[in-house]
Amino acid sequence: MPSMEQVPAFYRDPYLSRLQTRVIASGRDDRGVWIELADTIFYPEGGGQPADRGTVAGVPVVDVQKGPQGIRHYLQGEPPSGEVTLELDWQRRYDHMQQHTGQHLLSAIAEDRFGWKTTAFHLGAELCDVELDVPSLSPPQLAELEAWVAGEIRAARAVRVHYLEPEEVANLPKLRSRGLPEGHRGKVRLVEIEGVDVATCGGTHLANTAEIEALALVATEPMRGGTRVYFVAGNRLRRRLHAHEARNAALRKLLGAGDQELATVAEAKLAELAELARQLRRTQEELAVLLGEKLATSSERVVVFHREDAELTFLQRLARAFLEAQPQGVLLATAGKEGHGYFLLAANRPDIKQLGELVASELAGRGGGSGSIYQGKAAHLAQREQVKEKLAEAMSR
């Protein structure tokens, strides 16, 4: 393997969370302020695994990327110099190690036991996923795959790292690999799960599959002719379970039902709400018609109506009822609150567009329309009485 000086600390000991080293370069690019170090415990983003976080001399590390010459650590603050202490966000790193080692195990079993090859991998903040070259997976198939993974976690398989020359790698009888990074030179890094898998990989991993603790397959979706399988492992799985239990407890209290009945009771409540919404819409339509007919009895030349809690559809139904009852009438209807409202002008007049534009201008709004309706949004609803007078003047000219 490469000499210990050539391998960064995050590879020499992925369990190391603190390191003394020195700054050897610094600068700024489009990502921000960066430093390069003589050695580092911070893994740079790559191979589906996110970058580590932590601090350098107390300054937060916000990103880690491979630069043209070395590994760039992007900082939230002024770059330190000289000798520095690195502190790793260990919980984040260990989570990544659990998820990534779990992915190796999942991919190996999916291919060897079921013939489903992994074509892509992503380690997300909440869920991880692999893309398998199988059109779909049934619940029984997922359960069987999950059970096989659980068995290998219980088997406590050792996880080891090897460095081989490219020609040695080419002669390996069985190797899982999606290819080496472009421009790769030197020895190839392999991660072995004893008796289960050997794969090219540049990520950080656990020392034993038992540390994965558990792995659950939580969802699937079609993806590029294959199937994306979402999973969680380790501490993340336990956190997810606790969150689900807390939500279930809240739902049990709200719905007055046990876990097995929650979906049924929720479905019934949603159906009830949908029916109530339909009844409310019918009632609002009937109310709009009655109000429109009542407004049509007014002797005012321009009738003004406002309802704060109404929607534009309510105003439209109101206006149609008004004009049906009083074809020669003019209605200015508004809804909403000052600063955020609607207006509607209804009149069987050839100058409806000009009158509508006048209303929009006076109410600090904008709108449009056709036929006997001109409508839009308005900001100054308190001006409607003044607008009524200006409308009357415009209609008299």
TrEMBL record:
SMART domains: tRNA_SAD (SM00863). Residues 263-293 form a coiled coil. Keywords: Coiled coil, Metal-binding, Zinc. InterPro entries: Ala-tRNA-synth_IIc_core, Alanyl-tRNA_Editing_Enzymes, Thr/Ala-tRNA-synth_IIc_edit, Transl_B-barrel_sf, tRNA_SAD. The keyword Transport does not apply. Pfam families: tRNA_SAD. Its main location: cytoplasm. GO terms for biological process: alanyl-tRNA aminoacylation. It is found in: Cytoplasm. Residues 1-228 form the Alanyl-transfer RNA synthetases family profile domain. One of its GO terms (molecular function) is ATP binding. This is Alanyl-transfer RNA synthetases family profile domain-containing protein.
